[in-house]
Design goal:
single chain; 252 residues; alpha/beta; eight-stranded parallel barrel; binds 1,3-dihydroxyacetonephosphate
Length: 252
């Protein structure tokens, strides 16, 4: 089975600081990764991280962007600003943003459009919650999240990433089983194919939710798992480096 070059992204959420930047950069910057690696720190650390990663292939991204372009929107940061300070990608629609900040597919769609115009690669996060999972609604939820966010947008595969993060697997220590991941990633791929046609082959579909150094290789071996979105384990630089190393082993 041929796989595309994986992408491993650290989502620090509301954690980290200059110490974590120094330790993380030290543990990965001099390794030769074939896999693409990205780090999404809190906004205030983006410029600093971009600076220390100059001349490195490690990408820097944000955990969110504003749905607005500019103007009287206190506390917001636009896609254009993120591009200007060196962001390569941004997370959009993380489940914590959907739950805590009431984001929905419509706001995610606007954000994807903003990101594309600015030239920042959107990583659109999708996933069902525990109740939806138990009711067998996973496909319905993902279908709506994908189609309402992406239908009709001017997309090519390389400018887009999808991250499947079942809400019940985030921060619980219980990743989705390989069987569930395989089934859901196949479904996501089929829907992307319906939306994008052959460009779907260029989209990296990441898995996120309790990814650890011990399960990374198993998850990455699954068909249509083209990378990982890592929360808690990315706050331990050694663990994150081992997850990146596991991605390096994926044969393309
Ligand atoms: P954990 O890896 O801590 O489960 O978090 C996953 C996540 O939300 C990454 O975006």
């Amino acid at each position: 089975m041929s796989k595309k070059s994986p992408l491993v992204v650290a989502n620090w959420k509301l954690n980290g600081g200059t110490d974590l930047i120094a330790a993380s950069v030290a543990s990965i910057r001099n390794q030769n990764f074939n896999a693409r690696i990205g780090i999404a720190p809190p906004y205030v650390y983006i410029s600093g991280l971009v600076n220390v990663l100059r001349n490195s292939s490690i990408m820097v991204g944000s955990q969110n962007i504003s749905k607005f372009e500019s103007g009287a929107f206190t506390g917001e940061t636009s896609a254009q600003m993120l591009k200007e300070v060196g962001c390569d990608f941004c997370l959009i629609g993380h489940s914590e943003r959907r739950q805590v900040f009431l984001e929905n597919n419509q706001s995610c769609r606007t954000k994807v459009e903003r990101a594309l115009v600015a030239g920042v690669m959107p990583i659109v996060c999708i996933g069902e919650n525990l109740q939806q999972y138990e009711l067998g609604l996973t496909r319905d939820i993902l279908y709506r999240q994908l189609h309402q966010t992406l239908d009709g947008l001017d997309l090519t595969g390389e400018t887009l990433c999808i991250a499947y993060e079942p809400v019940w697997a985030i921060g619980t220590g219980k990743a989705a089983s390989p069987e569930v991941v395989a089934e859901v990633h196949e479904f996501i791929y089929q829907e992307l194919d319906a939306i994008l046609g052959s460009a779907a082959n260029e989209v990296n579909i990441l898995y996120g939710g309790s990814v650890k150094k011990d399960n990374a290789a198993e998850l990455l071996a699954i068909n249509h798992v083209d990378g990982l979105l890592v929360g808690g384990a990315s706050l331990d630089p050694e663990h994150f480096a081992q997850i990146c190393a596991a991605a390096n082993q994926v044969e393309s």
